[in-house]
Design a protein that fits this description.
It is a single chain. The two termini are 30 Å apart. The chain has a domain at 3-47 and 61-121. The protein has helices at residues 19-27, 39-46, 48-53, 66-72, 84-97, 106-114, 145-151, and strands spanning 11-14, 31-34, 131-133, 138-140. Strand 1, helix 1 and strand 2 form a beta-alpha-beta unit. It is elongated and about 50 Å long. By secondary structure, it is mainly alpha-helical. InterPro entries: Ribosomal_uL15_bac-type (IPR005749).
Length: 162
């Protein structure tokens, strides 16, 4: 609802979006990605200040459970696990179907690339396992190899709760 009047140029990450939402965002000159959040990651993202005040390390975002992996690897859904080249092809195809021009200036594409989180990140620019001190206004990243491996393992952790 409201897609026909949506005009905000946004770079947004959501958990789910239909084709109308994707088209409205891209038609306005924006970018949309769908990304999975497991329960701990969602709790941290919903109220980051409370999460930080409690002294909790930032959790690694887990990959989706098997039942959802196809959604988040599908370029047509703008899934965060889909290859960028496939997303670009899908963006072009959608713009042709809906008869609008999809052109992203190089500077804009570079800015969006810089604002893209890694698959295991909850917050842009903050590594999993980091502690955030609001009082000190500092981020403390894990340095011990065991902590680094725990929060950013070689193989991504899957969320098997669902």
């Amino acid at each position: 609802q409201g897609a026909e009047v949506f005009a905000a140029k946004v770079n947004i990450e959501v958990q789910w979006a239909n084709q109308m939402t994707i088209a409205a965002t891209e038609l306005a000159g924006g970018r949309i990605r769908t990304a999975y959040y497991d329960l701990d990651s969602l709790r941290a993202a919903v109220d980051p200040q409370a999460w930080f005040r409690n002294g909790n390390p930032i959790p690694p975002r887990k990959i989706p459970p098997h039942s959802l992996i196809s959604y988040y690897t599908d370029a047509n859904n703008r899934g965060y696990l889909a290859p960028d080249s496939e997303i670009a092809t899908s963006e072009q195809r959608l713009s042709e179907i809906l008869e609008y021009t999809r052109s992203v200036p190089v500077e804009q594409a570079e800015a969006w690339e810089a604002q893209t989180k890694q698959a295991n990140q909850v917050f842009l620019g903050v590594k999993p396992g980091s502690l955030v001190s609001l009082a000190d206004r500092k981020v403390f990243e894990p340095t011990h190899p065991a902590l680094i491996e725990h929060y950013s393992p070689e193989e991504a952790l899957a969320d098997h709760l669902r």
